[in-house]
Design goal:
Blueprint: H1 2-23, E1 31-34, E2 42-47, H2 53-68, E3 72-77, H3 82-94, E4 99-102, H4 111-119, E5 124-127, E6 139-143, H5 145-159, E7 169-174, H6 183-199, E8 203-204, H7 222-236, E9 247-250, H8 253-265, E10 276-277, H9 284-292, E11 298-300, H10 303-319, E12 340-343, E13 346-348, H11 353-359, H12 365-369
Parallel strand pairs: 2-3, 2-4, 4-5, 5-6, 6-12, 7-8, 7-9, 9-10
Antiparallel strand pairs: 1-3, 11-13
Helix pairs in contact: 2-10, 3-4, 5-6, 7-8
Length: about 375
């Protein structure tokens, strides 16, 4: 009798805990489940935030593809808050994750929690952002991020015909969060193309800000990028009829959108004289800006491809097979070179966005055109 009473009490208590957990969620520190029955191979997927469109897409793609393979998926978004991400990873480890897939908010902030994963022999796949200064990272899956930057630099070079012009052409620079190791590939990739033109005076930065830390944007935030661009406009009179501005090299779409907002508010209008603005991710807003003539290009990183590559990695780990990689020499996380699989980015412009994004099934016409 006592045993039966105790069992009933435990069942009721568990139900109450589940109900309380569901009631205490918020819009971004979110958890979604799915996958196979208890006892299946468990995959913890940690995404940084729901505030940026691309991470929602990455999370959804991973959950869907992993679930189709029969894995149990614990997908969580960390509200761009490092302690939240650490706590979520601790919970995943405690719940018996067999592998962790992590897009880190701060690549240097996960050493301690991942030491626990390493002690329990849980493989860790760094997803699109290299996790630094830990031996716990097993694999890295990303796009060729140096090439992303090169593509942005090459677009500006070719649009302004820099090799055949004396200039000066005026340019400002925006990259992403200092805690995201990817900026150490995006920005140097762009500068590998543009620095020679800065050195010979063909390109000039009105602000003089060309150092990676000077042009970093905390949180990759549209608002932070807009504020900085508004300050640059005010300080250097970067308005129509004022100081010329020919280009703004932005490492991604969220920063590009902030720059665009600031320029439009300062009186710039879409057209041939609107500064060339680069981007990355093909966010819907930025695709609409390309159509409107206020963003010149974006680098398309098909998150479906990246997710599929990661799912293949997870499957190989689960089956005890060799994990496919294609780079072992370029991605050092401060401890060792991390075996990496690189996917290829593609330049998207007004000329090819429909073929890439709509015909390719990435977006519907309704999503692009509203």
């Amino acid at each position: 009798m006592k045993q039966a009473t105790k069992k009933i009490f435990m069942i009721l208590a568990a139900a109450v805990v589940v109900a309380l957990f569901a009631a205490c969620g918020n819009d971004d520190a979110a958890t979604t489940g799915g996958g196979a029955a208890d006892g299946a191979f468990r995959v913890g997927v940690s995404m940084p935030t729901m505030d940026l469109q691309r991470w929602n897409q990455d999370g959804a793609n991973l959950r869907e593809m992993l679930t189709e393979r029969g894995f149990t998926v614990d997908l969580q978004f960390a509200a761009n808050d490092v302690p939240t991400q650490v706590s979520q990873l601790e919970n995943m480890i405690g719940a018996g994750a067999d592998v962790l897939v992590i897009a880190a908010i701060d690549g240097d902030a996960l050493t301690e929690v991942l030491a626990t994963a390493e002690a329990q022999n849980i493989p860790v796949i760094a997803y699109d952002r290299l996790i630094m200064n830990t031996s716990a990272v097993t694999y890295y899956a990303t796009f060729d991020n140096f090439l992303v930057g090169q593509m942005q630099g090459e677009f500006i070079r070719d649009a302004l015909d820099l090799p055949n012009q004396s200039g000066p052409f005026y340019i400002e620079f925006f990259t992403g969060d200092p805690g995201d190791n990817n900026i150490n590939f995006f920005f140097p990739g762009a500068m590998s193309i543009l620095q020679p033109f800065l050195d010979d005076g063909t390109l000039v930065s009105p602000s003089g800000q060309t150092d990676i830390m000077a042009v970093a944007t905390l949180g990759w935030s549209t608002e932070n990028a807009q504020t900085r661009m508004e300050n640059l406009i005010a300080l250097n009179n970067l308005v129509p009829g004022g100081h010329p501005l020919h280009a703004v090299m932005c490492s991604n779409d969220s920063t590009a959108q902030g720059v665009t907002n600031a320029l439009l508010n300062a009186g710039w209008t879409a057209g041939a004289d609107f500064p060339i603005i680069t981007g990355q991710d093909c966010d819907i807003i930025s695709v609409r800006n390309m159509i409107a003539g206020t963003q010149a290009m974006s680098v398309f990183k098909d998150t479906r491809v990246l997710a599929a590559n990661v799912v293949d990695m997870v499957s190989a780990i689960a089956d005890g097979n060799t994990v496919r990689i294609n780079n072992t020499t370029d991605y050092h996380n401060g401890i060792r070179f991390i075996p990496t699989y690189l996917s290829d980015p593609i330049v998207a412009t007004l000329a090819n966005y429909r073929e890439l994004l709509i015909d390719g099934g990435y977006y519907t016409e309704a999503e692009i055109y509203g």
